[in-house]
Amino acid sequence: MDNTQAAWRQEAEARELKLEFSATGSEYFRIWIVNLLLSIVTFGIYSAWAKVRSNQYFYSSTRLDGSSFEYHGNPKAILKGRILALVLVGAYNLAFKISPLLGLAIMVVVAIVMPVLVWRSMQFKLYNTSYRGIRFGFDGDKRNAYIHYLWLPLLVTLSLGLALPFVHQRVKRFQHSEARFGSTKFSFDASVGSFYRQYLIFFAITLAGSIVCSVAGFFLGAAFAHALPFGGQAAATILMIGLTYLWLFSIWPLFQSRLQNLIWNHTQLGQHGFRSELAWGRLTFIYLSNLLGVILTLGLFIPFAKVRALKYRLESASLLAAGSLDDFIAGVQQEVDATGEGVADIIDLDLAL
Q: Distance from the CA of 142 to the CA of which of 5, 125, 173, 271 falls in 20 to 30 A?
């Protein structure tokens, strides 16, 4: 029996455990509005505590096999990390206004320290996440952090973007294969070719849709110009641009859904597998309706939008348990500082598994 047949047999015999997400928009709205007001009053200082409150709510609302996840982040540690990150980002922005040479020097410093900060952020996120009293962890070392977050991104630039799918696969492999739950390691076996396939599909569909929008705009322009002697061409141009942006916004969930499915369908935790079944149509509807809700409510729909999107993405994933979840053993870990977490927050890096 080859490896593929063995994997199919293991999946068929596995017990599927769906993730359940019980958070509601109304509950999170109360947390969100208090966090927002206190962050404004304290000039952003409370934002670290706000993040912990939000994460604790979302983690405790996520259940697997009857047990919920827990978040243990220390707000004081996160605040220190954010202050350091703000100093770093502020120095970077200010340096170019003073002198191009000084700006270049600061840019080199930022490039050198950034891989370490991203690595620290991953350690912090996983160390402060637990399930059934057992914490997650990240074993990747500093050397590999530099390879994946400095040298490989340079390869994307040198290849004019052609190496992006390769780099994406390598970064995901690093993130997943170096993560663990207790003493049990995750593994990742998605190929480079499968990433190139997803990127090519996304590029082809995006290009085809954009061409259709442009052609439609051309004919609409002719029709408008004939029907409306004044302003017809401008109206057609606006309509064409609007259709193109709507298409691009609609196609992005296709890329997200296919990537999430690819990544998690090729991830394992010891003998246990994962399954992700995100659907493009459903995700697109959620994103478009969320955008409309946020616009119509002047931003007050944001917490509801976040809960809706998170609920669908989480509940589309499941664990294929090949045995008891009580057999995991806690690993020995050391507490991790939150310096990198501050940078990840400021530059909006999505590093969480």
A: 271
